[in-house]
Amino acid sequence: MAHIILQAPRLLASDVERLAAVACAEGVQELNPTAIRLLNVDPSTRDEVMPMAQAARIDAAWLDAIHRLADCRILAMDMDSTLINIECIDEIADAVGRKAEVAAITEASMRGEIKDFSESLRRRVALLKGVPESALEDVFTQRLRLNPGAENLIEAARSHGLKTLLVSGGFTFFTERLRRGLMLDQTHANTLEVVDGVLTGQVLGDIVDGAAKARHLQVLAQSLGATPEQIIVLGDGSNDLPMMAQAHYSVAYRAKPVVREQARFALNVSPLDAVLNWFRRQH
Length: 283
Known about the structure:
Blueprint: E1 2-7, H1 13-22, E2 27-32, E3 35-41, H2 46-55, E4 59-63, E5 74-77, H3 79-83, H4 88-94, H5 99-110, H6 117-126, H7 134-143, H8 150-159, E6 163-171, H9 172-182, E7 186-195, E8 198-204, H10 210-224, E9 231-235, H11 241-244, E10 249-253, H12 257-262, E11 265-267
Parallel strand pairs: 5-6, 5-9, 6-7, 9-10, 10-11
Antiparallel strand pairs: 1-3, 1-4, 2-3, 7-8
Helix pairs in contact: 4-5, 5-6
């Protein structure tokens, strides 16, 4: 029998009771003040329950079985707007008054309207020509914040033996700082060319696009012998989809519609560490 984990910043008892009744749940178990487990639900109710939960602004995760977190091997994440609160490239562009121009391309790319991510990135980076490198430091210290639950999720994953992977279509300037700060196992991103302390508007080397993200995850999974059922991937934009397709636990975090449609799970209102409530935490 399946289980449903319901999560929201404010879970109303009336909503939980309604969903439990529709799902024909055999029991209701409180996991914590923002998470409830509906036990042994009727699988045939899924198409009715999930839209109801969404309409009530509740994140519902449908699980055929509750596995141990320690049975997973990899936690892979996108950076911009997933692990962190901003799109770094948009904020860098703000330093030269080009944020609106760059953000429009970012948004179209994330929605999947610009199919070639590499082309979209090169167009945006070209607009950063002349930005002092110090502007990147300002973005990191003044604007970049971890999204709620990020540290708790990564800490729990690490303590249960999972390898952590940050793969970003953004920049190594930020991923490297996050790797050190969060003690991540691996990070991959794009390198901005800097000459005499100023951005040239060029990217060095191959671009980390959706296909490259998927390859980095594949290589790590093969090295660990990890199956899709042992992989958790969080993303929000269309270039995360190839990577998310390799994971049973594909999670759309505050994501674009195209990503929500294809991900198995979605966190629309809950913090990143809501993922932990889908698992048993014993080692």
